[in-house]
Amino acid sequence: MTDQSRPDLTQSSATGQPPEAASQTPAASATRRREVMPLPGLAAIALYMFVLAGVIIFGVVSGRHYPPVFLVFSALFFAASGGLLMLFRWAWAMTLAAVLLLAGYNMWIAIGFHQPPAAVQALLNFVFFLYLVRPEVREKLR
């Protein structure tokens, strides 16, 4: 080995990092850190699912909006939001199904009952669906 191809052991021992980590550039280190963090869109969608679960619980507790069987949906939404933050593929599939079904349901409400807020929520759910099916989102899941 030549002196140029050998890692600088004095630099790596001074920083306490292995020689491979010491030779990485800050950009490579930032890229590796970025791979571990979830995508911001996934975090937003997980928060949205969490809020939907809370709205369902509030609607069941108040007794006016939803029957108690809807608590099953709330539990599924909580599970999907937590799993999506941990980048699980099953949570991605669950969230994908939920936002697509919610988009269809809200569009039916908007057209059938002439409620514009339902159309906005249908559009939001459809945008979430389109974000979730992007290849770079699916590559991040395990």
Report on the structure:
Helix content is 76%, strand content 0%. The chain is globular. The chain folds into two domains: 1-37, no CATH class; 39-140, no CATH class. The longest helix has 25 residues, at 89-113. It has 142 residues and is an all-alpha fold.
Brief summary:
By secondary structure, the chain is an all-alpha fold. The chain has 8 helices and no strands.
List the helices and strands and how they pair.
Layout lengths: L8 H7 L3 H4 L3 H11 L3 H23 L8 H15 L3 H25 L2 H17 L2 H6 L2
Helix pairs in contact: 4-5, 5-6, 6-7
**Spans of 5+ residues with little confidence (pLDDT < 50)?**
none
Radius of gyration: 23 Å
Global geometry: globular
User: How many alpha or pi helices?
Assistant: 8
Largest sheet: none
Which series of helices and strands comes N to C? Answer: HHHHHHHH
Distance between the termini: 39 Å
User: How many structural domains can be distinguished in the coordinates?
Assistant: 2
The whole-number mean of residue pLDDT values reads 84
Kindly name the structural category.
mainly alpha
How much β-strand is present in the residues?
A: under 5%
